[in-house]
């Protein structure tokens, strides 16, 4: 278990000079609405690709260029945020982990930019980050699981396959035996951050996800599972599989479904 996976605004406020703060919103939001002081902007679209290394990952060369341009080094503490309860920021952090950034140096701002703004100041001023040279170091062990591993998990009684999409999407069609856990069920609408730990445990246990189970996550394009993955990691879950291909690959390869998934659902 890593400490400080999900961090408070106060935690971030005390580390503005030491951590690299990454805002993954669009540039017009970063520049026009404002951002956390000292943050750099790496919009979601820039680290999302359909022709990268695996599934939607951008590719190692693209990732190195993005982080170098953002002034991020391979050992920096990174805090990421968005204005959508953290789901896009979580995707940034998972991408960093999959490309070898030390997991104990990856942090999600609890809440989002709106939550930060309630208690802390923002700015529309930005400056070019200091030059950095980022190098990908793909780890020997990764939470990534492929199609074949996911297919085998359908018959594994020790694995819980978790669909993190909305209920209506799940009802349209899902992997056989999967349970539905909408990623937003882990978020408190009032605070915009995570629900308290006891509530999170109740939600997870309600669908059979406990620390002693093997968990395999999927959605449509691996964005929503990023948030759930970060939450589970913050709670000390050690056996979590991240199916990067998710339903997009599953349907393309003819994987079995309970129900059917219309093409437009995967967009």
UniProtKB/TrEMBL annotation:
Cited InterPro entries: Rhodanese-like_dom (IPR001763), Rhodanese-like_dom_sf (IPR036873), Thiosulfate_sulfurtransferase (IPR051126), Thiosulphate_STrfase_CS (IPR001307)
Keyword Repeat appears in the UniProt entry: yes
MF terms in GO: thiosulfate-cyanide sulfurtransferase activity
One Pfam short name: Rhodanese
CDD domains: TST_Repeat_1, TST_Repeat_2
UniProt xrefs under Gene3D superfamilies: Rhodanese-like domain
Keyword match Metal-binding: no
Domain of life: Archaea
Keywords, ordered alphabetically: Repeat, Transferase
Domain Rhodanese: start-end pairs: 15-125, 155-259
Protein name: Thiosulfate sulfurtransferase
Organism: Halobellus salinus
Lineage of the species this protein comes from: Archaea, Methanobacteriati, Methanobacteriota, Stenosarchaea group, Halobacteria
């Amino acid at each position: 278990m890593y400490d400080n996976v999900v961090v408070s605004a106060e935690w971030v406020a005390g580390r503005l000079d030491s951590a690299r703060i990454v805002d993954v919103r669009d540039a017009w939001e970063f520049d026009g609405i404002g951002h956390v002081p000292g943050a750099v902007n790496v919009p979601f679209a820039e680290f999302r690709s359909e022709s990268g290394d695996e599934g939607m990952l951008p590719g190692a060369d693209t990732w190195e260029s993005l982080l170098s341009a953002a002034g991020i080094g391979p050992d920096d503490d990174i805090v990421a945020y968005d204005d959508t309860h953290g789901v896009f920021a979580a995707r940034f952090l998972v991408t960093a982990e999959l490309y070898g950034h030390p997991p104990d140096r990856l942090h999600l701002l609890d809440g989002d930019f709106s939550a930060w703004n309630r208690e802390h100041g923002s700015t529309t001023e930005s400056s070019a980050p200091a030059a950095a040279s980022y190098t990908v170091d793909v780890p020997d062990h990764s939470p990534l699981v492929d199609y074949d591993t996911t297919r085998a998990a359908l018959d594994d009684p020790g694995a819980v396959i978790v669909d993190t999409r909305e209920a209506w999407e799940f009802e349209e069609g899902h992997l056989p035996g999967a349970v539905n856990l909408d990623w937003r069920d882990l978020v408190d609408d009032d605070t915009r951050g995570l629900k308290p730990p006891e509530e999170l445990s109740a939600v997870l246990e309600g669908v059979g996800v406990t620390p002693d189970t093997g968990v395999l996550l999927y959605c449509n394009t691996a964005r929503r599972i990023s948030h759930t993955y970060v939450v589970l990691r913050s709670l000390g879950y050690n056996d979590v599989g991240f199916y990067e291909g998710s339903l997009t690959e599953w349907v393309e390869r003819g994987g079995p479904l309970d129900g059917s998934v219309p093409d437009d659902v995967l967009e």
